[in-house]
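Here's what a typical entry looks like (Small RNA 2'-O-methyltransferase):
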Amino acid sequence: MKFLSSLHPLGGHLRAALQRNGDLYGFVPASIITVCDARISNLCKLLNPKVESNPYLAASIIMRAAAGLSGYVVASKGNLSIQKKNPYPPAIIKLSDIQQSVSQEDIVVKVIHIPPSLDKIIQPSSLDVPSSGYYLDIIAQKLGVRDANKVFMSRTVGKASSEVRLYFAAPESLLLDISSDLNVEEFHMEGSLNARASYFCGQAIYGDAIMASLGYTWRSGGLFHEDVSLQSYYRMLISKIPSGNYKLSREAILAAEMPLAFTSKNNWKGSFPKEILCALCRQHRLSEPVLAITIALEASCELSRSQKKLKVAGTDRFKTEYANGKDTAVDNGASVGSGSGFRCQVKILSKCQDLIIECFPKEVNKKQSDSIHNASLKVLSWLDAYFKDLDMPLEKLNYLANALDIQFHHDKFFKEFALCPSVYKYSGTPEAKLQESKHNNSFLFGQGVWSLSIEGSDSGLFPSTGCLVSVSYSVSLMTEDGHVKELLESNDEFEFEMGTGAVISSLESVVTQLSVGQSAFFKVELPPEEFIFAAADDFRTIRSMLSVQDCCLDYAVTLLAVTEPPEERMEQAFFSPPLSKQRVEYAVKHIREFCATTLVDFGCGSGSLLDSLLEYPTSLEKIVGVDISQKSLSRAAKILHSKLSTKIDAGIRSLVLYDGSITDFNSRLCGFDIGTCLEVIEHMEEDQASLFGNVALSYFRPKILIVSTPNYEYNTILQKSGLATQDDDPDERNQSQACKFRNHDHKFEWTRKQFDHWATELAKEHNYSVEFSGVGGAADVEPGFASQIAVFKRGFPLPENGLAEKEDSAQHCKLVWEWSTPEMPDMPASSL
Ligand code: SAH
Ligand code: MG
C-alpha cells in the first residue's frame, strides 16, 4: 500500500497495471522490473554481468526468479510479465483507482520511430495515451505487438537527467527461448539488429524501436512526458562522438570543430577536453577516466617543444648546465634539459575495469590543468577519428595512436565499443564511403570552398594565429541551382582561436582572408546528414530539399573583432608607446646613425616594422622582408601596397617580400647595411635560433644586425600587472613557481644572462662586436628591459665578390611581392 502510493517508478507501473483490462489485469512486464528497480537491476548484474549489454538476459533472470516464487506470483508462459497470485485487497484497488484518476490525463507526446534497417529513415511519430490506458500498451501497438508484456525498455539515454529510452519488442523466438528456459545468453537474431538503437544504449536491440521520453519517475506523481524531436534525436546521435560533443557545447554544429591543440584555457571555448572526455565515458557507460599527474623535474633529452620551453624556466640549474655545454652555438638544445612542470597520464577502463586506452603525452605543461586537458584532448582526437571511421584499418589506428602518445589494447577496446556500429549515413553506400574517406583525411568536413566573395572595405586589421576572433555567421542549406535556401544555424557573436582548427577548416581559411568589418559569402559541400539535422529545427523542408536535389551549405560570415594574443595585448597596454613602436624607433635610430640604405627584416611577419619605417624619413632605399608564414606575408603585402600607393615619396625605391626560412642560405639576403630580427628567435627552436645566428653572421653578413627577444626576467613584472596571467588558475600559481611565456607560440624566453651568452659567443665566433640594450624598462633597473636587444657590428669589411664562394644552388625562398619605383635600375644584390 505504501509502495503503491510512493513515487517509486515501479509503483506507477503497478498502478497502471491495475488499470489494465481483461487478462492483462495486474500484469507488470518483466523488463520494467529490471529497469525501474535499481536494487533488482544491480542484483541481475551481479548474477550475470552480461545483462549490461543484453536486456533480454535480465528479463529471463526475473522470469526464472518468478517461477521460483510460484506461491506468490503468476508468471505467464510465453509472456514476459508477472502478476501477484492472490487478488489485491479492495483498499489497494481503490487507492490505485484514485491515484490513477488524479494523476493521469490524456497525453499526446512526440516520439521517434527507428526502423532496424539503416536504409530506412528515422520517422517522427506521436503517441496518444488515454488517461485510462497503460502507456506501454500504446507503445506496444506502435511496435506492432499485442501488449506491453512483450515490450522491453532500455536504460535512459542522453544527458544524465534524461528520461529518454528506447522501447522495442521481444522477438517471438526469444519468448519461446525464455519460457523453455533455454540459454538467452547466446541469443541473437540474424539480420535485424537495430544498429542505430543499439548505438544509443549500448545494448543489442533487434527490430523496430521507439525513442520516447515518458514514464514514471521519482520526480513526478503522474506520467512524466516530453516530446522527442528529430533534432534532439540527431543531437544525441552526434553527442556520442567527441567532436559532436564539442560542437554541441558551442551550439555551433556547422561551424565549430574540436580544436587539434590545447593552447590555453583562455583561448579554449566550449566544454573543456577533460569534461568532454568524462561525458563521453559516461555516454559509453565507462567509468570516469583515471588521471595521474606527474611532476616533471628532469626533462629528458628527446625534448619535445614544450619541454624545451621549460628549460628556461629552471634558472640556476639551467645556467650551470648551459655554461658547461661544449658546442654552445648550435648544440645546446640537446645538452641542457631541466625544468619543472606537469605531465598527465589518462587511462580509460572497460566496464570490467580492464585498461583499454592509455595516453601519456611527452609534453611537459607548466600548469597542471593544461597537462590534463592536453592529454584528454589527445584521447578525444583519437577516439574521434575512430568513431568517424569504425572500419579504419588497424595500422591506421595504430599510427594515429602513436602520433598521439596513445596505447590501446585492441581486443578489449574493440569489444567495449562493439555496439557502436557506424550509424552515419556516409558509411553505407559506395559514394558515401568515398565521402567518408575524404572526411577522415582531414578530420574535418567541408574542405572545399567555392563561390567565395568578400564584401566591405579592407580595414587592414587581419587576424593571425593565436588571435581570438569574433564573427557573426549564418549557414543555410541551399539547392545547387540556388533557388531554395533554408537557414540552419546562425550566431550573432561567436568567438574562437585562430590557427587551432577550432572551426571547420573552410571557415577558418576564409576568415584568415578577412579584415575586421568585412564579410564573406561562400559555399561548401554537405557534411554528414546527421549534422544538418542536428542543427535544423525544421526537418521537413530540409529533408525534402535533400531528397529532391543536390544541395550545398551556404555560409555568410562577418569578422567583428580581433583580439591579439596576450603578448600584443600586454605590450600595448603596459608600455607607452607600445613596445612594438619602441622597437621600430630603436631600429630607425640605428638606420639614421649609419646612414643605411639597405635593410633586410628577418622574420618580418605582417610587416609591422617595414610599414612603420615608411613613416619615418630615412636614408633607406631598398628594403627586403623574409618570413615563413605565407599568411603573414600576404597581409604584409596588402598593407605595404596600400601604404606605397598613397604615399607621395620617401627615398624608398624597392621593397621586396620573400617567403623562406631565415636559417636557409639565400644570396638575395646577403650584404645588407642593416639586418633586423625583432621578436623572432623565440618563435624558433633553440637550435634553430643558433643556426640563424650563425647563418646571419657568417653568410648574410650585414654591417649591423639588430636582434630583439623578450627578457624572461621581466615577466614577473608583467604578471604582477595581471596582464600576462589572465589564464592562470589562482590555485596553481603556487604550485608552479615558474611564470609563463608571453605568447604560446614562444619556444623559449631567455633571461638576460642566457641572451648575453648566446650573442657573445656568436659575435666572438664571427668577428662581430656586440652591445646589449633594450626597450621597455631600463638597463640599470632590475629586472632590465622588457624586450632585450643585441646589436652586432661587423668588425671587418666585406671582401670583394665575397658571396661567390658560397652561392646557394637552390634558391630557398620565393618572391612573394615586389614593389619598385619605375626608374629603379636593376640592382643585383651582390653589388650592394
Ligand atoms: N618581426 C615581426 C614579427 C614577429 S613574430 C614583428 O616584430 O612584428 C615572429 C615571426 O617570425 C613570425 O612571423 C614567424 O612566421 C617568423 N618566423 C619564425 N621562424 C621563422 C623562420 N625560420 N624563418 C623565417 N621566419 C620565421
Ligand atoms: Mg614573440
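The pocket of S-adenosyl-L-homocysteine (ligand 1) is lined by residues 603-605, 608-609, 626-629, 632, 661-663, 678-680, 683-684 (CB under 6 Å).

More examples are in the samples folder.
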